[in-house]
Amino acid sequence: MLDARKAGKHKSVMENDPLVRAAVDVRLRAYAPYSRFPVGAAVETVDGRIFTGCNVENAAYPEGSCAEAGAIAAMAAAGGRRIRRVVVCGGGAAPCTPCGGCRQKIREFAAAETPVIMVSPAGERLLERTLSDLLPDSFGPGNLG
Fold first, then answer.
1. pLDDT at 107 over 60
2. Is 63 assigned a catalytic role?
3. C-alpha separations of 59 from 28, 52, 100, 130 in Å
4. Which of 22, 68, 98, 114 sits most deeply, having the most CB atoms within 10 A of its CB?
């Protein structure tokens, strides 16, 4: 686990990581006219493919979609079934962690030890957690028998 803010260490810039760059770039295409809080997410599959998504808001607020859900949907549509890493890029200096629903969506396709990395719009690593840190004692496909 890494929390650079609490550790008092310099934040690492991950501009050379294609997954981070993908999340940072797709955030710029988010549709967030109501919250004005654009979010980008990128997932990397076990075979190295990268899929992105951004939040898309709607005037009927509950009908919007999260960036992570969009990236996972793009992955599934392309036949991807296993996530190796996740990067989420929100705005500002505070890490933008996935919401509860997105944590569960990630869980459907990722192992407990999967890293979920939150970065700034500049690609600085703000926080890293494993999926099990974010969603302890989770319910997943294995629970269904």
1. yes
2. no
3. 20, 23, 22, 33
4. 68
